[in-house]
Amino acid sequence: MKHSLCWVGLTPLLLLAPQGLSESYFDIYDYETDYYYDYNRAQSNDPLPTFTARPQTFTVEVGQSVMIPCDVDDPGNHKLIIKKKPALGGKERLLSVGSEKVTRDRRLNIEGTRLTISHARPRDAGTFLCLFDVEPPVQLQHTLDVQFAPSVRSLAPPEQHVPRGKAVTLECRAHGNPEPVIRWTRQEGPLPSGLSSHEGKTLFLHGVDRHVEGTYLCTADNGVGEPASAAMTITVEYPPEITAEKAVVRTGEGDHVELACVVHGRPSPDVIWTRDGHPLPESLMDTQRHMPERVSGEGHHVTFTHVAHRHTLTITNVSEKDFGAYVCIAENPHGQKDAVIQMTGLPKPPVLTSSPIGGESTSYTLTWETESYYPITEFLIRYRKTHLGAWQPNHTVVMAGAWENVSKKVVATSVPRAQRESLTYTLHGLEVASDYVTVVRVRNRYGWSAESDHFHFSTKKAMAVLQSTSGGRSGAGTLAPTLLLGLSLLVLLREN
Questions:
Q1: Residue 129's closest CA among 184, 166, 84, 73?
Q2: Which tens digits make up the pLDDT trace of 182-212?
Q3: Beta-strand (E) ranges in 322-434?
Q4: Which of 433, 357, 438 is nearest to 405 (CA)?
Q5: What is the pTM of this model?
Q6: Other CB atoms closer than 10 Å to residue 443's CB: what's the count?
Q7: How far is CA 67 from CA 70, 72, 81, in A?
Q8: What is the residue-averaged pLDDT of the chain?
Q9: Bridge partners of 370?
């Protein structure tokens, strides 16, 4: 737009083209128009204008339209000026003078004393001044707040490989209006703390292990538009961890058996199998291929498989030579770990099931159960008296008796494989009201089981014996009067 100056007397006049003002108008306005208004004000007797609108704060979301009112009762010959101060600071901008729009922003429209902004943007936020250049100044101030959906960015790498035991810091920054709230979640489930989420710009993970692995999301939300998220993946490197599904596998000839160990580690460990200290061929190849591999030279009945973390050694048509100690060995750059699986045909150690308190004075019936792949052919009972625990006058303790052994053959019965078998045996020639301890072993065609746990029992108590607890000890001297009293009572009962 072109402009020109002419002089009327001593007064400079700014002639404006009807199509609007050019950017050079700012400079001319700063110096020449101020002079023009000062002179015009001095010569004018017009009353000062008064705004009828009140100061307001307008809040809109991005894309919406907003109207800024500069309503005035009677501007007279005074021109309304509209300016804007950016919300985040910066140079003040002139938007309009009277009905002339100065800014080139097509989204801004002047209609009388009102400014309309279409399709609001974040940069439109700020303070809008409606003013008349009079003395004293007459002005009205409005505030525009433009809200917009959040954006978020991660300050941590998108993927981190961390050694076990180290600490990890995850951090995000968000931008939006209003100020977004950042919450942390994990795609795989709860956070390591057990909470479903954590609020804050930073998430600290201390002493990480494999249970901390996963993808963490920081999500920014301010209620405007859709929340924004950034993802970070944590991978924890650690030595192998290995467990056997069964430490002892009991089986027999012709059976089909699976020996399995569960292996964790980062990087993924290589796994091999050994039997009785000798490597089983091709087991490492299987781990690397993640495919079953049938082994030649083992009677074509050994197979290695690997599915996820489960490594399996399968033996079909078991024979006695397959029995032994199998070791599952896992190794990665951080270390090595193994688990032992004993494959055997021996029966399980017996479990005593009889009551500890016997019902007979000089005998006791033991009952026990065992699990055996083949029928039990023999059992061995070892028992002895336990010590009395009583202090003698010479301050000695009566010790336990010697072990007695009872061995007996068992008539073979048809027992389903890998089923429990119950056995009983009555011990005779025991002492009245005495305490005993016993252990039991059983045998099948492959050999003897391990001993049962120690089992304590007693024969029937003939009478109650009162013991003095004076001084925390019971001596032999205190037992004699009590026994004599008991015998006297028995004699009186028989006489009556």
A1: 84
A2: 999 999 999 999 999 999 999 999 999 988 9
A3: 324-332, 335-344, 351-352, 364-372, 378-385, 404-409, 419-427
A4: 438
A5: 0.54
A6: 19
A7: 10, 15, 16
A8: 82
A9: 421
